[in-house]
Amino acid sequence: MIGLESFVVDSEQCATLFRLGRDVEAGLAMIELIGAVQPSFDLLPQAIQQQWLLLLGRMLECQEAQNWLALADYLEYELIQLLRDSLSI
Residues 54, 25: contact at Cβ < 8 Å? Predict the structure, then answer.
């Protein structure tokens, strides 16, 4: 996966912004991150794409509910793990 380490760093930074209560800045960073990550997931097997879409749905639900801590956890733990798992394919 192209830019895996860059995606990991961006995801961690975005999670940190949400934890600091900088939700507007974090939201913009998350949009950029999702836009950058999406093309990489499009190239992966269907099972990984489904995991990505499920995770993305959960993250967007957290954003809508303004549950910034849960969203930060998804970004920092779930997304990074999915990115790393995808690399092993």
Answer: no
CA–CA dist 15, 12 (Å, integer): 5
CA angle 87, 52, 88 (to 5 degrees): 15
pTM: 0.91
Domain count, the chain: 1
User: What's the whole-number mean pLDDT along residues 37-43?
Assistant: 91
For residue 34, give both structure tokens: 């999702």
Burial of 4 (0-12, 13-18, 19+ CB in 10 A): middle
Domain residues for the domain of 16 are: 4-87
Q: How far is CA 59 from the centre of its chain?
A: 8
